[in-house]
Amino acid sequence: MSALNLRLPNSIHNKVREVALLEGTSINSFITTALAEKLSAFLTREYLEMRANRSSEEKFQEALSEVPDVEPLEYDRF
After folding, report:
1. H-helix or E-strand spanning residue 62
2. pTM (global) more than 0.85
3. C-alpha to C-alpha distances, 27 to 7, 16, 37, 47, nearest whole angstrom
4. Could you tell me if 20 and 30 are in contact, meaning their C-beta atoms sit under 8 angstroms apart?
5. Domain coordinates of the chain in residue numbers?
6. Under 8 Å CB-to-CB from 27, ≥6 apart: which residues?
7. Kindly report the CA angle at 30 between 25 and 33, in degrees rounded to 5?
């Protein structure tokens, strides 16, 4: 595990302290979780962009043609 010195504006530090206290966790755990969530969102976007770039209209239409042409079940209708 590594250490990181982080400079935060007092207003953000105070809010992080408040929320961490409400969540029953440490500031360190709160920030670690927040960073992990942000990385996950970033990496998911990167992954989806990569997959989208490998696709084509032709592949989409081919996959769509395999979907049965049936009415949806009652509970799937709005």
Report:
1. helix 57-65
2. no
3. 14, 7, 15, 30
4. yes
5. 10-67
6. 16, 17, 20
7. 125
pLDDT, tens only, 30-54: 999 999 999 999 999 999 999 999 9
* The one-letter amino acid at 52: A
**Scanning the structure block, which residue is given the tokens 């592949």?**
59
Q: How far apart are CA 41 and CA 43, in angstroms?
A: 6
Q: CA 41 → CA 18, 35, 67, 78, distances in Å?
A: 24, 10, 30, 30
Six-digit token pair at 26? 């440490």
Helix, strand, or coil here: 45? helix
> How close are the terminal C-alpha atoms of the chain, in Å?
50
Tokens describing residue 8: 């935060």
Pair of tokens at residue 68: 């049965």
